[in-house]
């Protein structure tokens, strides 16, 4: 596929629209782009890491101004597979536990069954190029977050605040509190 095909795909993501545009997939994609830019994702293997979850939650707080939706990480990580450029890789012999509506139950079964996700190889090659990654990020921001785009751009200058706070919690709080924070 060409870059234009992926631009069209990003502009027409399969998202729930029953209560307005569900922002989960959009925030996850922007978060993955941020992780590629930071150097924490260097190969076409998007693992569920504390840093990715923290970036997702930080971006959610910045971009989503609706109280209708909650920042549930497992939903978009699982459901992006419906957009055909995102592929889940399960651990050998594992199956993803889903509900009767074919949705992931929660973060725990996702983490237990999914080793990682990957993009189409052609898309990943675009995403590692700073200019093309920036273009795709702007497409997502312009298409879905026009009202909060500037807030996100300003926050990028303060990147890592949320991740630093999670690291402090990990070092200073009981494991139960930390697990509650990332799930």
Describe the structure.
This protein has 183 residues and is mainly alpha-helical. The protein has one domain (3-73, 80-90, 116-182). 55% of the residues lie in helices and 6% in strands. The protein has helices spanning 3-11, 24-38, 50-63, 74-79, 107-113, 121-127, 130-144, 149-156, 161-172, 175-182, and strands at 86-90, 114-119. A two-stranded antiparallel sheet has the order 1-2. Helix 1 (3-11) packs parallel to helix 7 (130-144), helix 2 packs across helix 3 and helix 3 crosses helix 9. It is globular, with a radius of gyration of 16 Å. The termini are far apart. Mean pLDDT is 86; it is low at 160-168.
SSE layout and pairings?
Elements lengths: L2 H9 L12 H15 L11 H14 L10 H6 L6 E5 L16 H7 E6 L1 H7 L2 H15 L4 H8 L4 H12 L2 H8 L1
Antiparallel strand pairs: 1-2
Q: Assign the structural class, choosing from mainly alpha, mainly beta, alpha/beta, alpha+beta, or little secondary structure.
A: mainly alpha
**Rg computed from alpha carbons, rounded to a whole number of angstroms:** 16 Å
How many helices? The count is 10
Total number of distinct structural domains = 1
Note the run of SSEs as H and E: HHHHEHEHHHHH
- Which strand-content bin applies to the residues? 5-15%
- Integer average pLDDT: 86
- Give the CA-based shape: globular
Distance between the termini: 34 Å
| Largest beta sheet: strand ordering | 1-2
Task: Please describe the biggest sheet, giving its number of strands, its sense, and whether it closes into a barrel.
Answer: 2 strands, antiparallel
pLDDT < 50 stretches: 160-168
Give a count of the beta strands, DSSP E runs of length 2 or more: 2
- Portion in helices: 55-70%
């Amino acid at each position: 596929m060409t870059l234009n095909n992926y631009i069209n795909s990003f502009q027409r993501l399969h998202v729930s629209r029953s209560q307005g545009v569900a922002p989960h997939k959009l925030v996850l994609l922007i978060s993955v782009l941020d992780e590629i830019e930071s150097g924490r994702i260097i190969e076409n293997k998007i693992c569920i890491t504390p840093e990715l979850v923290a970036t997702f939650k930080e971006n959610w707080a910045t971009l989503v101004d609706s109280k209708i939706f909650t920042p549930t990480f497992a939903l978009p990580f699982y459901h992006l597979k419906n957009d055909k450029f995102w592929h889940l890789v399960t651990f050998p012999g594992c199956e993803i536990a889903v509900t009767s509506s074919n949705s992931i139950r929660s973060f725990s079964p996702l983490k237990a069954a999914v080793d990682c996700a990957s993009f189409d190889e052609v898309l990943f090659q675009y995403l590692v190029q700073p200019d093309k990654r920036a273009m795709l990020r702007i497409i997502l921001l312009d298409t879905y977050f026009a009202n909060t785009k500037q807030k996100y751009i300003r926050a990028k200058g303060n990147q890592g605040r949320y991740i630093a706070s999670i690291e402090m919690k990990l070092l200073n709080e009981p494991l139960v509190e930390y697990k509650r924070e990332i799930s």
